[in-house]
């Protein structure tokens, strides 16, 4: 019975999204789930970027952060900076589901996907910690990945990568501490990822530690390449 309740709440919220007059997830103004002013205020990340971490970088070779400590996966690309209306909209998705908002933001992701000429045999959402997903009800990475994959016609596998260990909150931890925190937290299904080019989708890239931990599990399961692709990123590595 207990597991039915979050499911019911989700279905009700989906229904409400259709019934309620839409309010912009970025600024709260009525009229649309994502208004023209907020769409305009998004700061897209444009090439040239660091080939490793995807941060804006217009010189030869990796950015200073990656020269010192390169990310442990093929590369990361993010569509825009984690700021302003995007920050508020992601908060809406995280705590209220808001399928309509995920749909609107998926168009930003589809644009980013083409801008960086990404390719994939398989797209996977970064899995949420099971306990956290139960209490909150949503995996915002899955909502975004689903909407984006549908828009771009990409093959999506939501269960090929699982979180096998919860992790304490990452908030306030250094890059090294975050890495340690999520090491061995994921497991991938070799039958579905072996020999394939995989892209892991997440909402925000902060240090890249979660994407790296996902990638480690995918490489162990035989993935040919693993890229991280996020809607937003914090302005710089911490
Ligand atoms: Zn707005
Ligand atoms: Zn870099």
How does this structure look, described?
With 238 residues, the protein is of the alpha/beta class. It has one domain (4-233): Rossmann fold (3-Layer(aba) Sandwich), CATH 3.40.50. Helices cover 42% and strands 15% of the residues. It has ten helices and six strands, in the order αααβααβααβαβαβαβ. The chain has helices spanning 4-19, 36-41, 64-68, 84-96, 99-115, 130-136, 140-152, 175-182, 190-193, 209-220, and strands at residues 75-81, 122-125, 161-163, 186-188, 197-205, 225-233. A four-stranded parallel beta sheet has the order 1-6-5-2. Strands 3-4 form a two-stranded antiparallel ribbon. Strand 5 (197-205), helix 10 (209-220) and strand 6 (225-233) form a beta-alpha-beta unit. Helix 8 packs parallel to helix 10 (209-220). The radius of gyration is 17 Å and the shape is globular. The chain binds zinc ion (2 copies). One zinc ion binds at residues 24, 26-27, 29, 35, 37-38, 85.
Summarize the helices and strands and which ones pair or pack.
Layout: H1 4-19, H2 36-41, H3 64-68, E1 75-81, H4 84-96, H5 99-115, E2 122-125, H6 130-136, H7 140-152, E3 161-163, H8 175-182, E4 186-188, H9 190-193, E5 197-205, H10 209-220, E6 225-233
Parallel strand pairs: 1-6, 2-5, 5-6
Antiparallel strand pairs: 3-4
Helix pairs in contact: 5-7, 8-10
The structure holds zinc ion (ZN) (2 copies).
Give unreliable regions as ranges. none
Ligand roster: zinc ion
Overall helicity:
40-55%
State the shape. Answer: globular
What percent strand? 5-15%
Instruction: Give the N-terminus to C-terminus distance in angstroms.
Output: 43 Å
The name CATH uses for the topology is: Rossmann fold
User: Overall pLDDT, averaged?
Assistant: 87
């Amino acid at each position: 019975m207990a597991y039915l309740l979050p499911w019911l709440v989700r279905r009700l919220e989906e229904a409400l999204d259709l019934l309620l007059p839409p309010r912009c997830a970025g600024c709260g103004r009525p009229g649309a789930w994502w208004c023209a002013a907020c769409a305009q205020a998004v700061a897209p990340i444009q090439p040239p970027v660091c080939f490793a971490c995807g941060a804006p970088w217009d010189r030869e070779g990796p950015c200073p952060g990656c020269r010192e400590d390169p990310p442990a996966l093929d590369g990361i690309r993010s569509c825009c900076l984690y700021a302003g209306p995007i920050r508020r909209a992601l908060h809406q998705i995280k705590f209220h589901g808001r399928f309509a908002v995920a749909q609107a933001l998926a168009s930003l992701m589809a644009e980013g996907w083409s801008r960086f000429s990404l390719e994939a045999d398989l797209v996977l959402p970064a899995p949420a910690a099971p306990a956290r997903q139960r209490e909150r009800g949503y995996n915002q990475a899955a909502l975004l990945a689903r909407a984006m994959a549908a828009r771009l016609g990409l093959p999506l596998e939501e269960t090929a990568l699982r979180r096998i260990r919860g992790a304490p909150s990452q908030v306030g931890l250094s890059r090294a501490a975050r890495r340690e925190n999520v090491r061995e937290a994921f497991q991938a299904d070799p039958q579905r990822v072996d020999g394939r080019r995989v892209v892991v989708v997440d909402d925000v890239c902060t240090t890249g530690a979660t994407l790296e931990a996902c990638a480690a599990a995918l490489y162990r399961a035989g993935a040919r390449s693993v890229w991280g692709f996020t809607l937003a990123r914090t302005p710089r590595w911490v």
